[in-house]
């Protein structure tokens, strides 16, 4: 027994010394894969719920309305203050929150990206100034203020919330894209392409436009999370949709006084929001990690090779 | 420095004017103006037309904007459509609580984030760094209103340690009942501090790895002196700039926190005004809150310029 326990210690330093690095690297890889899987599941559940929930909601509503804040067998997650089935609300409520947020970010990148790219590749300084000055004016306006301004005239409208969130995110997107495009346009690759006599369109749209994409991809995760927060907060505060609309934020706000009586009515939509944002944040971090873990110099090499490799592939 | 400050302040004034135009455009040019709201669609068209004339709503938009702006400059923001009180009175009455919340939050957030950011940046990868990073990442995935509800459920409803609402309390009561402040400020701190720590930490890392820090180390500059004299001012720059952008998170947080805890502040007044479509109050309050965000922006820009003059303001 004592002989057995005496043996391992000398083996341990050896293992740490030789295979230690590989071991931890492997462990990190396995842990990374597990985290990625968990993140993907966290992210997928609310997205699938939002996409296919409305199709399944009639099944949950089949048992009919119940008593307010009831927790009986007929309703798996109980009912809300109006006696509606919480599961059905959950299934129907994802589209407005996630749809508004994603739509707003997409719109912000479409408009802001075009403005930023145009400002960066323009040969005239005044175009840049004209496009970017207004952006700087709008930049410091807090998002919920814009929503309240828009909300005062168009109450209970998911479109108004989407437009307001897009309006807030557009300047940020424009600045980000402009900065990334300027960096690429001033870089050696763009210069080499210009010297090779590539057309202006190809350099600016093909190369500069393309090199902006990784920057945008890295930013989209945080931007969507922020948009989901803003949309949910707007609906929670009653600035967005009607107080009876089936929306996660609205449901949380409407049932919050019954938190201890009927916890599901608050916790279920909250869990959906949390799963989405945590999953998205983790996935985004994974992506950035993978990009950063590449050996130094690799990124520049790959970028430098792009136009040339394309040419070789064609001939 | 003085010239720079002057330019920055002039830009801010221009932004404020544009902001006023934007606020007016978004609220006043909507279908369904104040006269419709006052009469709630019940009065005859003749009556509405007369009221519209009395309120000056039949004037062209540009004239109305000038009238509104002129009154605003003289401190008269109009009359509330719902209560009939003067809007300036509503603003003056509600602003104290909001300023107090934001001020206390900022006073705690900045030193805490600066110290934690510096410490974690110096020992990147250490246990404290990993803990802080994990906590800030987790906190930034939780929407403000979810955090508020969770804290209320635990500390106010379950444990009964802290009051869950300000109903019945006024700003003056805070001196006798400081417990009122704890939960709202904790919620506001969660988001702001985690954003700031991340920036201060990144700034510290960048400054420590820079050429001048390496050179100073080679010259034998003591570590404390290196950290305080050379690293800290440069490390603080991204954090201070983040502080400007924190205005968004802080104001959004204030809206949510005031709504959840029923704080009698500007944000509660704003949400009430949006719900009742009280346009003059919404205009005054959004302009005030946006101006506060703008002021924060200017202050942060000036401080970061003082810390590291090479940072350009406009780009």
TrEMBL record, chain A:
Gene Ontology biological process terms in this record: transmembrane transport
Cross-referenced Pfam families: BPD_transp_1
Sequence intervals crossing the membrane: 30-52, 101-122, 134-152, 158-177, 224-241, 261-284
Biased composition (Basic and acidic residues): 290-301
Domain annotation ABC transmembrane type-1: ranges: 94-284
Region entry Disordered, spans: 1-28, 290-315
Keywords on record: Cell membrane, Membrane, Transmembrane, Transmembrane helix, Transport
One GO CC term, this protein: plasma membrane
Membrane topology: Multi-pass membrane protein
Cross-referenced SUPFAM superfamilies: MetI-like
Annotated localization: Cell membrane
InterPro entries in the record: BP-dependent_transpt_permease (IPR050366), MetI-like (IPR000515), MetI-like_sf (IPR035906)
Gene3D superfamilies: MetI-like
Xref: PANTHER family: OLIGOPEPTIDE TRANSPORT SYSTEM PERMEASE PROTEIN APPC, PEPTIDE ABC TRANSPORTER PERMEASE PROTEIN
Family assignment from sequence similarity: Belongs to the binding-protein-dependent transport system permease family.
Name the UniProt record assigns to this protein: ABC transporter permease
Automatic annotation (TrEMBL), chain B:
Domain ABC transmembrane type-1: 95-300
Keywords: Cell membrane, Membrane, Transmembrane, Transmembrane helix, Transport
Main location: membrane
InterPro entries with a match to the protein in the record: BPD_transp_1_N, MetI-like, MetI-like_sf
SUPFAM superfamilies noted in UniProt: MetI-like
Regions that span the bilayer: 90-119, 131-155, 175-193, 249-270, 282-300
Lineage top rank: taxon: Bacteria
A GO BP entry: transmembrane transport
Location of the protein in the cell: Cell membrane
Membrane topology: Multi-pass membrane protein
PROSITE patterns: ABC_TM1
Alphabetized Gene3D superfamilies for the sequence: MetI-like (1.10.3720.10)
Pfam annotation, one family: BPD_transp_1_N
GO terms under cellular component: plasma membrane
Family (UniProt): Belongs to the binding-protein-dependent transport system permease family.
Identification of the protein by name: ABC transporter permease
